[in-house]
Protein backbone atom coordinates (compact mmCIF):
# COMPACT_ATOMS: atom_id res chain seq x y z
CA UNK A 1 0.00 0.00 0.00
CA UNK A 2 1.40 3.33 -0.99
CA UNK A 3 1.48 5.90 1.74
CA UNK A 4 -1.02 8.63 0.99
CA UNK A 5 -0.73 11.78 3.01
CA UNK A 6 -2.22 15.03 1.90
CA UNK A 7 0.40 17.67 1.49
CA UNK A 8 -0.79 21.05 0.27
CA UNK A 9 0.99 22.66 -2.64
CA UNK A 10 4.07 24.40 -1.39
CA UNK A 11 3.39 28.04 -2.23
CA UNK A 12 6.89 29.18 -1.23
CA UNK A 13 8.44 26.94 -3.85
CA UNK A 14 6.06 28.32 -6.45
CA UNK A 15 7.46 31.79 -5.85
CA UNK A 16 10.86 30.53 -6.96
CA UNK A 17 9.59 28.73 -10.03
CA UNK A 18 9.41 30.31 -13.48
CA UNK A 19 6.42 29.31 -15.57
CA UNK A 20 6.71 28.85 -19.36
CA UNK A 21 4.88 32.10 -20.18
CA UNK A 22 6.05 34.15 -17.22
CA UNK A 23 7.99 36.59 -19.41
CA UNK A 24 4.71 37.43 -21.19
CA UNK A 25 2.62 38.28 -18.13
CA UNK A 26 3.09 42.03 -18.62
CA UNK A 27 2.23 41.75 -22.31
CA UNK A 28 -0.88 39.76 -21.42
CA UNK A 29 -2.09 42.56 -19.17
CA UNK A 30 -1.39 45.18 -21.85
CA UNK A 31 -3.20 43.13 -24.51
CA UNK A 32 -6.39 42.84 -22.48
CA UNK A 33 -9.49 44.45 -23.98
CA UNK A 34 -12.43 45.57 -21.88
CA UNK A 35 -15.92 46.50 -22.95
CA UNK A 36 -18.60 44.70 -24.92
CA UNK A 37 -16.05 42.98 -27.18
CA UNK A 38 -13.60 42.40 -24.39
CA UNK A 39 -11.07 39.58 -24.20
CA UNK A 40 -8.29 38.93 -21.71
CA UNK A 41 -5.60 36.31 -21.41
CA UNK A 42 -3.55 35.26 -18.40
CA UNK A 43 -1.44 32.32 -17.41
CA UNK A 44 -2.64 30.00 -14.68
CA UNK A 45 0.66 28.85 -13.32
CA UNK A 46 1.67 25.46 -12.06
CA UNK A 47 -1.55 23.51 -12.25
CA UNK A 48 -0.96 19.92 -11.24
CA UNK A 49 -1.38 17.54 -14.16
CA UNK A 50 -1.10 13.80 -13.92
CA UNK A 51 -1.20 11.52 -16.93
CA UNK A 52 -3.27 8.41 -16.46
CA UNK A 53 -3.40 5.42 -18.79
CA UNK A 54 -5.92 2.69 -18.03
CA UNK A 55 -6.71 -0.13 -20.47
CA UNK A 56 -10.26 -0.32 -21.74
CA UNK A 57 -12.32 -2.66 -19.57
CA UNK A 58 -9.77 -2.77 -16.75
CA UNK A 59 -11.25 -3.34 -13.26
CA UNK A 60 -8.94 -0.58 -12.07
CA UNK A 61 -11.31 1.93 -13.63
CA UNK A 62 -13.70 1.51 -10.72
CA UNK A 63 -10.95 1.69 -8.12
CA UNK A 64 -9.59 4.85 -9.71
CA UNK A 65 -13.09 6.31 -9.88
CA UNK A 66 -13.34 5.99 -6.10
CA UNK A 67 -9.98 7.71 -5.64
CA UNK A 68 -10.89 10.51 -8.02
CA UNK A 69 -14.45 10.91 -6.80
CA UNK A 70 -15.79 10.55 -10.31
CA UNK A 71 -16.05 8.00 -13.08
CA UNK A 72 -13.43 8.31 -15.77
CA UNK A 73 -14.81 10.25 -18.73
CA UNK A 74 -16.26 7.90 -21.31
CA UNK A 75 -16.08 9.80 -24.56
CA UNK A 76 -14.26 12.49 -26.47
CA UNK A 77 -14.72 15.95 -24.98
CA UNK A 78 -16.02 14.82 -21.63
CA UNK A 79 -14.57 16.37 -18.47
CA UNK A 80 -15.28 14.56 -15.21
CA UNK A 81 -15.14 16.64 -12.04
CA UNK A 82 -14.20 14.88 -8.82
CA UNK A 83 -12.63 15.66 -5.43
CA UNK A 84 -10.48 18.70 -6.21
CA UNK A 85 -9.68 17.27 -9.64
CA UNK A 86 -10.92 17.42 -13.19
CA UNK A 87 -10.31 14.47 -15.48
CA UNK A 88 -9.95 15.15 -19.20
CA UNK A 89 -10.54 12.50 -21.85
CA UNK A 90 -7.54 12.26 -24.18
CA UNK A 91 -8.21 8.90 -25.79
CA UNK A 92 -10.16 5.74 -24.84
CA UNK A 93 -7.35 4.64 -22.52
CA UNK A 94 -5.63 7.92 -21.71
CA UNK A 95 -6.69 10.70 -19.34
CA UNK A 96 -5.26 13.86 -17.86
CA UNK A 97 -6.02 14.59 -14.21
CA UNK A 98 -5.80 18.31 -13.42
CA UNK A 99 -5.86 19.85 -9.98
CA UNK A 100 -5.39 23.32 -8.61
CA UNK A 101 -4.89 22.37 -4.98
CA UNK A 102 -3.32 18.94 -4.76
CA UNK A 103 0.42 18.49 -5.25
CA UNK A 104 1.56 16.24 -8.08
CA UNK A 105 3.37 13.82 -5.77
CA UNK A 106 0.26 13.44 -3.62
CA UNK A 107 -2.04 12.87 -6.56
CA UNK A 108 0.35 10.34 -8.08
CA UNK A 109 0.60 8.34 -4.86
CA UNK A 110 -3.18 8.33 -4.45
CA UNK A 111 -3.75 7.15 -7.99
CA UNK A 112 -1.00 4.52 -7.83
CA UNK A 113 -2.69 3.19 -4.70
CA UNK A 114 -5.86 2.75 -6.74
CA UNK A 115 -4.11 0.94 -9.56
CA UNK A 116 -3.24 -2.71 -9.25
CA UNK A 117 -3.08 -4.06 -12.76
CA UNK A 118 -0.33 -4.07 -15.28
CA UNK A 119 -0.93 -1.60 -18.03
CA UNK A 120 -1.97 1.25 -15.74
CA UNK A 121 0.43 4.17 -15.86
CA UNK A 122 0.38 7.17 -13.54
CA UNK A 123 2.87 9.93 -14.20
CA UNK A 124 3.25 13.48 -12.94
CA UNK A 125 3.14 15.62 -16.09
CA UNK A 126 2.75 18.99 -14.38
CA UNK A 127 5.78 20.43 -16.17
CA UNK A 128 4.65 19.17 -19.58
CA UNK A 129 2.03 21.81 -20.23
CA UNK A 130 1.13 25.25 -18.99
CA UNK A 131 -2.32 26.77 -18.86
CA UNK A 132 -3.46 29.94 -20.57
CA UNK A 133 -6.86 31.28 -19.63
CA UNK A 134 -8.71 33.21 -22.34
CA UNK A 135 -11.83 35.03 -21.20
CA UNK A 136 -14.28 37.56 -22.53
CA UNK A 137 -17.04 38.06 -25.05
CA UNK A 138 -14.57 37.92 -27.95
CA UNK A 139 -12.71 34.85 -26.72
CA UNK A 140 -14.40 32.55 -29.23
CA UNK A 141 -13.70 34.97 -32.07
CA UNK A 142 -10.01 34.97 -31.11
CA UNK A 143 -9.82 31.17 -31.05
CA UNK A 144 -11.68 30.81 -34.32
CA UNK A 145 -8.82 32.55 -36.11
CA UNK A 146 -6.62 29.52 -35.63
CA UNK A 147 -8.65 26.52 -34.52
CA UNK A 148 -10.04 24.00 -37.03
CA UNK A 149 -12.86 22.93 -34.70
CA UNK A 150 -16.43 24.17 -34.67
CA UNK A 151 -16.48 26.28 -31.50
CA UNK A 152 -20.13 27.27 -31.68
CA UNK A 153 -21.83 26.50 -28.33
CA UNK A 154 -24.11 24.10 -30.18
CA UNK A 155 -21.10 21.91 -30.99
CA UNK A 156 -18.72 22.85 -28.17
CA UNK A 157 -20.54 23.21 -24.87
CA UNK A 158 -19.13 24.45 -21.56
CA UNK A 159 -17.45 21.65 -19.66
CA UNK A 160 -15.92 20.17 -22.80
CA UNK A 161 -12.22 19.63 -23.47
CA UNK A 162 -10.67 18.37 -26.69
CA UNK A 163 -7.24 17.94 -28.17
CA UNK A 164 -6.89 20.18 -31.18
CA UNK A 165 -4.59 22.89 -32.50
CA UNK A 166 -4.58 26.67 -32.25
CA UNK A 167 -2.35 28.59 -34.59
CA UNK A 168 -0.90 25.20 -35.56
CA UNK A 169 0.16 24.57 -31.97
CA UNK A 170 -1.16 21.26 -30.59
CA UNK A 171 -3.17 22.07 -27.47
CA UNK A 172 -5.87 20.83 -25.20
CA UNK A 173 -8.75 23.27 -25.42
CA UNK A 174 -11.06 23.22 -22.42
CA UNK A 175 -14.19 25.34 -22.39
CA UNK A 176 -14.61 25.87 -18.66
CA UNK A 177 -17.70 28.02 -19.00
CA UNK A 178 -19.23 30.33 -21.56
CA UNK A 179 -16.62 32.84 -22.78
CA UNK A 180 -13.90 31.24 -20.65
CA UNK A 181 -11.37 28.80 -22.06
CA UNK A 182 -8.34 27.02 -20.69
CA UNK A 183 -5.72 26.41 -23.35
CA UNK A 184 -3.03 23.88 -22.50
CA UNK A 185 -0.02 24.00 -24.84
CA UNK A 186 3.17 22.13 -24.18
CA UNK A 187 5.63 24.29 -22.26
CA UNK A 188 7.94 24.94 -25.20
CA UNK A 189 5.03 26.28 -27.27
CA UNK A 190 3.80 28.67 -24.56
CA UNK A 191 5.84 31.61 -25.84
CA UNK A 192 4.67 31.22 -29.44
CA UNK A 193 1.05 30.62 -28.52
CA UNK A 194 1.03 33.48 -26.01
CA UNK A 195 2.29 35.89 -28.67
CA UNK A 196 -0.14 34.40 -31.22
CA UNK A 197 -3.03 35.10 -28.85
CA UNK A 198 -1.84 38.66 -28.17
CA UNK A 199 -1.72 39.24 -31.92
CA UNK A 200 -5.15 37.70 -32.44
CA UNK A 201 -6.61 39.90 -29.70
CA UNK A 202 -5.23 43.13 -31.13
CA UNK A 203 -8.09 43.86 -33.53
CA UNK A 204 -10.60 43.99 -30.68
CA UNK A 205 -8.48 46.60 -28.95
CA UNK A 206 -8.63 48.78 -32.05
CA UNK A 207 -12.30 48.37 -32.78
CA UNK A 208 -13.48 48.10 -29.19
CA UNK A 209 -13.25 50.52 -26.32
CA UNK A 210 -9.61 49.59 -25.64
CA UNK B 1 -9.53 19.37 -47.24
CA UNK B 2 -11.47 16.25 -46.37
CA UNK B 3 -13.28 15.55 -43.13
CA UNK B 4 -12.35 12.25 -41.52
CA UNK B 5 -14.57 10.69 -38.91
CA UNK B 6 -12.33 9.29 -36.17
CA UNK B 7 -14.05 6.31 -34.48
CA UNK B 8 -13.36 7.90 -31.09
CA UNK B 9 -13.45 11.66 -31.65
CA UNK B 10 -15.92 12.16 -34.47
CA UNK B 11 -15.53 14.30 -37.54
CA UNK B 12 -12.31 16.32 -37.73
CA UNK B 13 -10.25 18.09 -40.35
CA UNK B 14 -7.77 16.10 -42.38
CA UNK B 15 -4.92 18.22 -40.95
CA UNK B 16 -5.38 16.53 -37.56
CA UNK B 17 -4.52 13.15 -39.09
CA UNK B 18 -1.54 11.42 -40.60
CA UNK B 19 -1.66 8.86 -43.34
CA UNK B 20 -0.37 5.34 -42.77
CA UNK B 21 -0.57 3.69 -46.17
CA UNK B 22 -2.34 0.52 -47.18
CA UNK B 23 -4.22 -1.36 -44.47
CA UNK B 24 -4.30 -5.12 -43.91
CA UNK B 25 -0.66 -5.77 -44.77
CA UNK B 26 0.20 -8.67 -42.45
CA UNK B 27 3.58 -8.80 -40.76
CA UNK B 28 5.41 -11.93 -41.92
CA UNK B 29 5.02 -14.78 -39.46
CA UNK B 30 8.71 -15.57 -39.61
CA UNK B 31 10.65 -12.63 -41.04
CA UNK B 32 13.93 -14.57 -40.83
CA UNK B 33 12.62 -17.14 -43.29
CA UNK B 34 12.00 -14.54 -45.99
CA UNK B 35 14.30 -14.02 -48.91
CA UNK B 36 15.53 -10.49 -49.53
CA UNK B 37 13.04 -10.15 -52.35
CA UNK B 38 10.10 -11.27 -50.21
CA UNK B 39 11.16 -8.94 -47.42
CA UNK B 40 11.48 -6.12 -49.93
CA UNK B 41 7.99 -6.86 -51.20
CA UNK B 42 6.62 -6.80 -47.66
CA UNK B 43 8.33 -3.50 -46.90
CA UNK B 44 7.88 -1.52 -50.07
CA UNK B 45 5.31 -3.04 -52.44
CA UNK B 46 1.79 -1.70 -52.07
CA UNK B 47 -1.38 -1.67 -54.09
CA UNK B 48 -2.03 1.38 -56.23
CA UNK B 49 -5.78 1.07 -56.38
CA UNK B 50 -8.00 3.27 -58.45
CA UNK B 51 -11.27 3.40 -56.52
CA UNK B 52 -12.05 2.13 -53.04
CA UNK B 53 -8.84 1.60 -51.11
CA UNK B 54 -8.41 0.37 -47.53
CA UNK B 55 -5.86 2.52 -45.76
CA UNK B 56 -4.64 3.38 -42.28
CA UNK B 57 -4.88 6.78 -40.64
CA UNK B 58 -3.82 8.00 -37.21
CA UNK B 59 -5.55 10.84 -35.37
CA UNK B 60 -2.22 12.36 -34.43
CA UNK B 61 -3.41 15.63 -32.91
CA UNK B 62 -6.40 14.03 -31.18
CA UNK B 63 -6.65 10.63 -29.54
CA UNK B 64 -3.50 9.31 -31.29
CA UNK B 65 -5.21 6.07 -32.23
CA UNK B 66 -4.80 4.22 -35.52
CA UNK B 67 -7.85 3.18 -37.51
CA UNK B 68 -8.80 2.09 -41.01
CA UNK B 69 -10.61 3.98 -43.71
CA UNK B 70 -12.15 2.90 -47.00
CA UNK B 71 -11.54 5.83 -49.28
CA UNK B 72 -12.15 6.30 -52.98
CA UNK B 73 -8.81 7.37 -54.42
CA UNK B 74 -10.55 9.11 -57.34
CA UNK B 75 -13.25 11.10 -55.58
CA UNK B 76 -11.73 11.18 -52.05
CA UNK B 77 -15.14 10.12 -50.76
CA UNK B 78 -14.80 8.13 -47.55
CA UNK B 79 -17.02 5.06 -47.70
CA UNK B 80 -16.37 3.57 -44.26
CA UNK B 81 -14.32 4.03 -41.11
CA UNK B 82 -13.55 1.08 -38.86
CA UNK B 83 -11.23 0.28 -36.00
CA UNK B 84 -7.90 -1.48 -36.27
CA UNK B 85 -8.40 -5.21 -35.94
CA UNK B 86 -11.91 -5.18 -37.34
CA UNK B 87 -12.47 -6.89 -40.72
CA UNK B 88 -12.82 -4.78 -43.81
CA UNK B 89 -16.52 -3.97 -44.22
CA UNK B 90 -18.24 -4.87 -47.44
CA UNK B 91 -19.88 -2.01 -49.21
CA UNK B 92 -23.46 -2.35 -50.36
CA UNK B 93 -23.85 -1.48 -53.98
CA UNK B 94 -20.22 -2.22 -54.74
CA UNK B 95 -17.44 0.26 -55.31
CA UNK B 96 -18.14 3.42 -57.22
From TrEMBL, chain A:
Pfam families, per the entry: SoxG
Alphabetized InterPro entries for the sequence: SoxG, TrmE/GcvT-like
MF GO annotations: sarcosine oxidase activity
Domain of life: Bacteria
Presence of keyword Transmembrane: no
Transmembrane segments: none
EC numbers: 1.5.3.1
First-level EC class: oxidoreductase
This protein's UniProt keywords: Oxidoreductase
Protein's UniProt name: Sarcosine oxidase subunit gamma
Species, as recorded: Nocardioides albus
Organism placement in taxonomy: Bacteria, Bacillati, Actinomycetota, Actinomycetes, Propionibacteriales
TrEMBL record, chain B:
Pfam families xref list: SoxD (PF04267)
UniProt KW Oxidoreductase keyword: yes
NCBIfam families in the cross-refs: soxD
Residues that span the membrane, as ranges: none
UniProt-listed GO biological process terms: tetrahydrofolate metabolic process
Top-level division of the source organism's lineage: Bacteria
Residue runs in coiled coils: none
Sorted UniProt keywords: Oxidoreductase
Record protein name field: Sarcosine oxidase subunit delta
Keyword Oxidoreductase: yes
GO molecular function terms listed in the Swiss-Prot or TrEMBL record: sarcosine oxidase activity
Entry EC number(s): 1.5.3.1
Amino acid sequence: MVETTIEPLDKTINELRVSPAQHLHGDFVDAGVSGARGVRVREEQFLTMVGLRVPIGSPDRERLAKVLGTELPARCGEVAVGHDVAVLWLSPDEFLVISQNVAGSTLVSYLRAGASEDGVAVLDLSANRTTLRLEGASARAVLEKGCPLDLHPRAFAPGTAVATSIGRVPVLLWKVENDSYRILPRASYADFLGRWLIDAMAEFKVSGSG
Amino acid sequence: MILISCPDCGSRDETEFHYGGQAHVPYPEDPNALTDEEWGRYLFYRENTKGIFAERWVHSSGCRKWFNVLRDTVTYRIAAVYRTGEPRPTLDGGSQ
